[in-house]
Design goal:
This protein is of the alpha/beta class. 29% of the residues lie in helices and 26% in strands. It folds into 2 domains: 170 residues, Rossmann fold (3-Layer(aba) Sandwich), CATH 3.40.50.2020; 139 residues, 3-Layer(aba) Sandwich (Rossmann fold). The protein is built from 8 helices and 16 strands.
Length: 326
């Protein structure tokens, strides 16, 4: 049976990190006003991960920051091992902070004899010692129901909106690059007081899609495509090409998690997208030939961590300019 314990009055917050996204973890700790927890994360010659917690965590409220971006399996194992080490070191409560939740696209059986890996990852997180989970922009919101522990699901939209408001884009239309992202696009359109359009697509393979039609008016308009993640950039670049042919002026893409493999980078360099706006939920090297604006979610996650520790509501983190993201 899962026990939901509350921190005592003298329990302190400590933030640790694996190697997946150390800059973000450091920024989160800085936003809270505490140093990043000391730990040793290394590998044995055979590739096995070794982790040692280099400070006392007995009775502490611990948050472990680790995006499960590529190399996904390696980063997951780092997270599991670190939480096991913290649990065995008598941490009071362990919260797994996953700015990006990998395997989220495998959330259902859509063909015979395939796994539901998003559920498997949820089970493994709990088995490794997680008492609760904090994450940003899940690919499928129903993944929250895969857990029997509390899940705090934040949205990057407030961070994105602050930046978009400064751009003061006129004649704006928010576009969902596929039908599945319509709810997110509608939320952006409401807040930005913009029009709404949808691109209908047909998926040819795991890396190739074809944009077929646009529902909505984009001719002579500035366009903002919104999506939760992109890796090969097939959906975004195909949609951008169709939008350009239909007379769209400036084309921007707003994506919470930009994993961007080599194929995605090459496609974006050749695409009609004028600017890719994303966040630092995943660590990305500098990329030449693409205008990428990376916004930090460190303040958002830092505020959530403090509220979770103090048993305060995090509902206000979903609200901005009189609107809600959920």
């Amino acid at each position: 049976m899962v026990q939901h314990r509350k921190p005592s009055w003298d329990t302190r917050v400590k933030v640790f990190s694996g190697n997946a996204n150390l800059p973000l973890a450091s920024a989160i700790a800085k936003s809270i006003g505490i140093p990043l927890g000391k730990s040793t994360v290394s590998a044995f010659p055979d590739g096995e991960t070794f982790i040692k917690i280099d400070e006392n965590v007995r009775g502490e409220d611990v948050f472990v920051v680790q995006s499960t971006s590529p190399p996904t399996n390696h980063n997951l194992m780092e997270l599991f091992i670190m939480m096991d080490a913290l649990r065995r070191a008598s941490a009071f409560r362990i919260t797994a902070v996953l700015p990006f939740y990998g395997y989220a696209r495998q959330d259902r059986k859509d063909q015979p004899r395939v796994p539901i890996t998003a559920k498997l990852v949820a089970n493994l997180l709990v088995a490794a010692g997680a008492n609760r989970v904090l994450t940003v922009d899940l690919h499928a919101q129903q993944i929250q129901g895969f857990f029997d522990i509390p899940v705090d699901h934040l949205y990057a939209a407030p961070v994105m909106y602050d930046y978009l408001k400064q751009k003061n884009l006129a004649d704006l239309v928010v576009v969902s690059p596929d039908v599945g992202g319509l709810k997110m696009a509608h939320a952006y359109a409401q807040v930005l007081e913009a029009g709404l359009a949808i691109v209908a697509k047909r998926r040819k393979s795991a890396t190739a899609v074809e944009a077929l039609a646009i529902i909505g008016e984009v001719r002579g308009k500035n366009v903002l495509m919104v999506d939760d993640l992109t890796e090969t950039a097939g959906t975004l670049t195909q949609a951008a090409e169709l939008l350009h042919r239909r007379g769209a002026k400036q084309i921007l893409a707003c994506v919470s998690h930009a994993l961007l493999n080599d194929l995605g980078i090459e496609r974006l360099r050749k695409s009609r997208i004028d600017e890719l706006i994303t966040t630092d939920t995943v660590l990305r090297p500098a990329i030449e030939g693409i205008r990428i604006t990376s916004l930090s979610v460190a303040g958002l996650l830092g505020e959530a961590i403090q509220r979770i520790h103090k048993n305060l509501s995090i509902t206000s983190l979903f609200e901005f300019s009189g609107a809600r993201t959920s």
